[in-house]
Amino acid sequence: MYLFLAFLLVPIIEIALFIQVGGLIGLWPTLGIVVFTAILGTVLVRTQGRMALGQLQQSFAKLDDPTEPLAHGAMILLSGALLLTPGFFTDAIGFALLIPGVRVAVFRYLKSKVKVTQFQMGSGAGFHTQRGPFDQSDVIDGEFTEVRPRKDPSKPSKWVEGPHEH
């Protein structure tokens, strides 16, 4: 229902704004503003996107939860789509989503509305079974040997040497 209202109301709002602004400043300045906001939006989305990608890479490097950087990236992508869409209303929403504080507020709001009930890692095909959450067949018994680095790093380890002939 909300999606239907958005597809109905957004074009009506945009047409009304085009008529009002075009009546005040004329056709060519109105079209100039639309083209200018698309170009400016492209530049801003590119810079904000690079920053979001850097934050995502940092969260992966630190093994942190990547949810927030991913959400910021998605909002920046949505912002770019809105800024490339001709119109003043969509431009206002697109520019608002480029402000980090607005993205944080939207993320917190959406986070409060979403409840994760299950999280699964691995491939979906063939990974899920009808067994309980833990079964003895899930255990892999093994042994390990701790490998410590050599004191002299200039000497190669035995791992890189070829097979020995006897």
Could you walk me through the main structural features you see in this protein, from its secondary elements to its overall organization?
The structure is a single chain. The N and C termini lie far apart (78 Å). The chain has a domain at 34-112. It has 166 residues and is mainly alpha-helical. The chain is elongated, with a radius of gyration of 27 Å. The model has no long low-confidence stretch (mean pLDDT 83). It has helices at 2-25, 27-61, 67-84, 88-97, 100-113. 61% of the residues lie in helices and 0% in strands. Helix 3 packs antiparallel against helix 4 (88-97). It is built from 5 helices and no strands.
Silhouette: elongated
Helix content: 55-70%
Average pLDDT across residues? 83
Overall number of strands: 0
Low-confidence blocks of residues:
none
The tally of helices reads: 5
What value does the Rg take, in angstroms? 27 Å
- Which sequence of SSEs, written as H and E, runs from N to C? HHHHH
First-to-last CA distance: 78 Å
Main beta sheet strand tally, sense and closure: none
Strand residue content: under 5%
Q: Which structural class is indicated by helix and strand composition?
A: mainly alpha
Index terms:
5 helices; single chain; mainly alpha; 166 residues
List the helices and strands and how they pair.
Layout: H1 2-25, H2 27-61, H3 67-84, H4 88-97, H5 100-113
